[in-house]
Amino acid sequence: MRMILTFAATTAALALGIASVPGAVIAKEVPPAPSAPRPFTLPQMTTYTLDNGMKVTLIPYGNVPKVNILAAVQTGNIDDDGNVWLADLTGALMQKGAAGMDASQMAEAAAGMGGNLSLSTGLNLTTANMDVLSEDAPQAIGLIADLLQRPDLEVDQLEKVRADLLRNVAVAKSTPESIASEAFQGAIYPDHPYGRVFPTQEQLAGYTLDQVKAFHAQNFGAARTHIYVVGQYDEAGVREAIAKAFGDWKSGAAATSLPAPVNAAPKVVLIDRPGAPQSQVIIGKRVDKPGGDVAFKAMNTLLGGYFSSRITRNIREDKGYTYSPHGVLSDRVEGAHWLEEAAVTAESTGPAITEIYKEVRRMRDEPPTAGEVQGIKNYMNGTFVIGLASRGGMAGSLATYDLLGLGADYMNSYVGKVSALTASDLQNVAKQELPTDRMSVVVVGPLESVRPQLERVPEIAEELPE
Length: 466
Prior knowledge:
CATH topology of the largest domain: Cytochrome Bc1 Complex, Chain A, domain 1
CATH architecture of the largest domain: 2-Layer Sandwich
Largest sheet: 6 strands, mixed
Low-confidence stretches: 1-22
Structural class: alpha+beta
Strand content: 15-25%
Number of strands: 13
Radius of gyration: 27 Å
């Protein structure tokens, strides 16, 4: 039996390519170095404009006989005009029926094309989207046109939609993440739609059907709309369907422009949650550079924007203050911002904020290592290309970059620009955009135990509210 076991072990070792010599040291295999990123170029696309001002972009893509159709309308909360979430109420009611079809009939029609119809309302962009079989592209275009141009906006559906949104607001405003976000956005975007995150219950309960209809009439039109068709399709048939479905749509008003000032005074906002085991912390500021700046994206990624970032290693891996910190560099039409957010244990609130400031200063004072920079470049280029690997990803990315005024040229040059970044580029953007004395700080937590900790954080001690 002993001989059999020895033979079996030797055979297994040989099968794995391992020398069965007592005391032998097995050399660790070194993975091959990653190859240089290949240049990325978008597929050949065609963009044209209808007589009413609506833009159309056609992109042949992939080999699967399906097509993604995305209609992006430049409207959203930017047009609320103080009536917070009127855009959301309008979008939700639009989905309840259009052109005489109720929601279930529209869903059934979309399902018959191998897809579904969705509408999403954002700060500056409202999108209607379908991913369907290629042969059904003309019918899908017609269904999207009905949704955007001819919503029923019926009074009997208004209260159902309103009730859903009231529940959403109540749930959101009960969570520390939402409470902190609302306070932070209000601090850095004062008197601006970006700073009005949630309506009051009274506001939302008071909106009328006439207000909803007026919002739709004023803000949905051809001049604000760009349709993206990505996938396999018959170009002549798609062009004909778009002209038929959208050609008579009124141009409407131009998109709203409300630039948000950069120089909002920094604030420290403390919100008490007695007995809470954690504090929700946000540190950040408005920034001059747009969110699309690749050096800024790279700096944010290294500082706090992905799992292996410096801040994550510091306050999660090394010190155990938090589970999931993350940094965000926003892409916003009217003004970008940077923030670092974390839910930290209550007893570590002050130390965690101190360490975040420490990492920001280190990013400003010292250039990152060559290894760090190369790792960030590989990560950014990889995630960028992966994000464009689907029809929906391609359409959504194009709509976003067009909204930001960056467009296809930015996407075609992205990999090259990222690959050319240097350590100095990352350090310089940190110096320019992240002065520690201009940061706003929001803390939502048990202030009885947290406030004494904050009084020992020099960056904010003198700014603490009474």
